[in-house]
Amino acid sequence: MIQHDLDDALNELAPPIIVAGLQVDTWCTWHDEQSPWPLDEFAGVVSMGALASVTNETSVPWIRNELELLSRALERGVPILGVCFGSQSLARAAGGQVRKSPLTEIGWHDVTMTSHAETDPVLGSLGKEFPAFQWHYDTFDLPPDATVLATAGDLIEAYRVGDSAWGVQFHIEANPSVVYGWLGTYRDAIDEEGIDVDELRAATERNWIEYKRRSWEVGAAFATMVVKAATSRR
Fold this sequence. Notes:
The chain is of the alpha/beta class. The protein has a single domain (2-232), classed as 3-Layer(aba) Sandwich (Rossmann fold), CATH 3.40.50. It has six helices and nine strands, in the order E-H-E-E-H-E-H-E-E-E-E-E-H-H-H. It has helices at residues 14-19, 61-76, 85-93, 176-185, 187-192, 197-232; strands at residues 2-3, 27-28, 45-47, 80-83, 98-113, 129-140, 146-152, 155-161, 165-168. The radius of gyration is 16 Å and the shape is globular. The mean pLDDT is 96.
């Protein structure tokens, strides 16, 4: 797992991954500029959100190193799950471009799954439309040979590269603890966007139980892909 900030961990994705019998090692990019372990030791990669922007790849060493790691994982067919910043870095590693989003999404926004998502082995359980927790300022252009799995207006919210890599722009891992923590930590950003904090809290109370189910199902489905990859290497 690639973690970029102290407050953006696996959260609800962690339990189903552990239940699947997988061991998780964490590359903390603020501590090490490159992964402490070679990619060969792992059967899967999860890249989480970040305050940083992939557009700063030329000036931030760990971003360059992460893009190189994801590129190698793509070449080898290692299962990848990118969340928010992770979805952007995966898109960049797969040949797409990351840019500032025309729309800042913070809070709960409806996401619509495409017809391609219905049979997707990782995101197929998400249904046709649901409120997803968002917090991002950047977006990306779809990488070559990628399949769009979800949208919100003109923005791509989820996609698959080949048959072993997935990117989700929304924070599928989020739970009330994450939301309330970010409300306190990044209150200035919320105020700048004119977001109604009381409504955001209320939406969290309405959505969190069903969202937890979706988080766990995505985590379990991705873990299944990792287990299959590990088994095939034996």
